[in-house]
Description:
The chain has six helices and 16 strands. It is an alpha/beta fold.
Amino acid sequence: MKLSYHGHSVVKVVTNDHVILIDPFITGNPLCDLDPDLVKADVILLTHGHNDHVGDTVEIAKRNDALVVATNELAVYLGQKGLKTHGMNIGGAYNFDFGRVKLTKAFHSSSYEEPDGTIVYTGMPTGILLTIEGKTIYHVGDTNLFSDLKLIGDMNDIDVAFIPIGDNFTMGPEDAVVAADWIQARTVVPVHYNTFPVIEQDPDAFAKSVKTGNGKVLQVGEVFDI
Length: 226
């Protein structure tokens, strides 16, 4: 199984049978290396409804006939746009043909802003525990530091955790180091940084500060195997 990072919170998971995109914010993302008109996906997983996470979901899903998995309100909203969706909620898990998805708590907000400025409520924000081929990936989503992260780490054998470090909208590097310690993943990858001036951070300094697991900075487009 191959993982790659594509700027902001965009993660791609490639198995022998499926291509899975998490939070495909491509258009308008100055750090992303993907072409929204060419990217392939069988499944799109969304942590929450903010525009910089939903991103190009509608266009990619329609072109690829991809399944979109998200919280129920967000799934209903995207279903109304003609997408094939599967709604879930916090604490729930489901076994799909590509793997098992469980949504975890995240402390943030979640809404989508339409082109005319209308704000659409899209349910609670989440993290995503994705288990495929005996490996577990935890995309923490947009969140602050909260104590249940330790419980999640204790209850799950996590191979890779994608943790936000940008501050301002999510936890910053100092809190993210604590989160990494609690989550206990074998590999910890920083995300949600340097996309905008307000979330500029030094990912290498964060990675060196990680005490539990291997802090690993992925360059945009870099692929690694788990």
